[in-house]
Amino acid sequence: MIRRTLIAISFLILILPLAAENKRPLTFEDMMKLKRIGDFTVSPDGKWVTFTAVDVSLEANTRKPHLWIVPVAGGESRRLTAQQGPGEDRLRFSPDGRTVLFTTSRDGGSQIWVQNFDTAQGALVGAPRKVTNISTEADGAIWSPDGKSILFVSGVYPDCADDACNKQRDEAAEKSKVKAKIFTHLLFRHWNAYGNGKRSHLFLVEADCDAAGGNTACTGKDLTPGDHDVPPFSLGGQDQYQFSPDGKEIAYTSNIEEIEATSTNSDVFTLSLTDPNAKPNNLTSENKGSDSTPMYSPDGKWLAFRSQFRAGYESDRFRLRLIERQSPIRRHLAAFMDLTENFDRWVDSMSWAPDSKGLFMTAGDMGESPIYFVSVGGGAQRLLVTGTNDSPTPVPNSRVIVFARNSVRYPIELYKAELTVGQMIGGIEGGRIDSEAANRNPDTKPTDNVVVLSKLNDAVLAEIQMQPAEPFWFTGSEKAKVQGFIVKPPNFDASKKYPVKFLIHGGPQGAWGDDWSFRWNPNMFASDGYVVVMVNPRGSTGYGQKFIDDINGDWGGRAYQDLMLGLDYAEKTYSFIDKDRECVLGASYGGYAVNWTITHSTRFECAVSHDGMFNTESAYGTTEELWFNEWEFKGTPWANRDLYRKWSPHLHVTNIKTPTLVVHGQLDYRLDVSEGFQLFTTLQRLHVPSKMLYFPDEGHWVLKPQNSQLWYKTVNGWVDQWTGTKKQ
Asked: β-strands 690-695, 660-665: how paired?
């Protein structure tokens, strides 16, 4: 028996490398075949999970969302809607589960539609009906608790009293041959677009409204009139508004500060739906930091929300706070409970347990995003599921939670986990779903309690050799403990020497870890024979708030030292690294760090600077979110010019010797394209080998499929050229 076992083990040792070699490296075309799962929801009867998956067409240069469904019990995922048409997004079940709403532009602009749902078969039945016909389009819809109304978001002119006014204003602007704009306040442009005078508002429409034939009632009632956005601008995340369980009020987020460009002070408001003369009630007016993501407990007793305490700091610690709705002093800070007071991590997504005794939440932690449970009664956060997860959602009438998960080896898929008896919602005691949670070992497998549901990308990934993100720790600046990761190339051979792509993340309050990216994909960078090294320097999230704060006012100090010390450690520790063939690449803050690196070091054979800050003073005058620069550089350039100039790469350009590729988008209003132009002009005048990749139709991110293809080709080609891997 022992001999047979040894023979079997020997056979496996021989076969496994061959199996890996039969898989090919990841290509860009492979990435475009992968479906991108986004929004999901669980049916009220707990039988189904519906979700949005985006199909990318490289040939057509499009991304189109479609609705899918999978049984919670397990089984094949399948499309809910037909392949034809513009696609659909954001399905939500009515409270009884027999009707769904979704967003689609199949009849022109984006509107809300409803359709009957067969709860037994998990299928849409009958013809869909358009509920809204507002000229400014509709999105973000949710049902009222009684299923009779629908709340949605639309961008409207704040001085227009009805939709006819909005429509007339838009048509006049479209027809006018004069495209000039007049600005009277800051934040006149944001992210990738100039302001058009509109504000996002919340609207309420009857669920049985039939928008066919131009029914004016189907434009909805504006619940939040005025010259403020409800909800504020967001790049993603959970809804910033919700109905109370009894349907008598809504809670929402808004920033009512006079100068929005310098303020992060959003607040949580409630608004009565039973009193026609009701005014919004600001629950968090005494906190000058950000309060957002209001979420009622199922029993209606509590309102939970995320909160930051420091004004003007978008990267302060996100806390989970509660207010008891019936408290007579609920406007005062003393009435708030901080459920994460001693939890030194950022609270990201969250959801209430069905019994209202606690909340599930995710929080970034050392390159992962585990799922935790926290009780309303207080106490420590209980770790439930390790890995990189998002949006934990309890399944009704069960001990199951559904959540999104991704890894450096696969994009987002939907998973479920069944809680043990000792972990029942509202009474979680001891234990955890993943028994290997404590040691953070990325090579261990999840327990049988964690099961993948969607499996949309299995067929494509089965052909690809994907490598894990392997963590390492080293001593950084001021003897801080700092984490990094390496990703090895396909068919890795430890006896060989490999060139290095040294990636620097953006933010700077971000992090590398075991997660997927379509824009900066570590396996994509490694696929053509490179070792990818990634370091989480000072400023990175997931290591405590002090670690984050250490970069404030010190952009080229501790963080830069951490980066260089991390690469030093990797060179000494991994003998397969060829330290004479290394290239440094980064975007956003990573682009700044690349600019700082090439003005202070000649250790790299090449550099790629994407959307990076080059001149700190000019960057202040051309950005839109001024709170960021004023916090990070501790004031304005005229009030604190010395600090701006201390950390500005453009004042050290005579040191540049590194061949550099500059990438920038015209529509990037976070870091204006002029920063890229200044860098490229300087490189050319200094006769430093350089090239610029300019996108007239992209913002801070490169999103269009064919643009992304050109980006990867140009970036990887530049690195190949200067590391001698492939001659151009």
From this structure: parallel
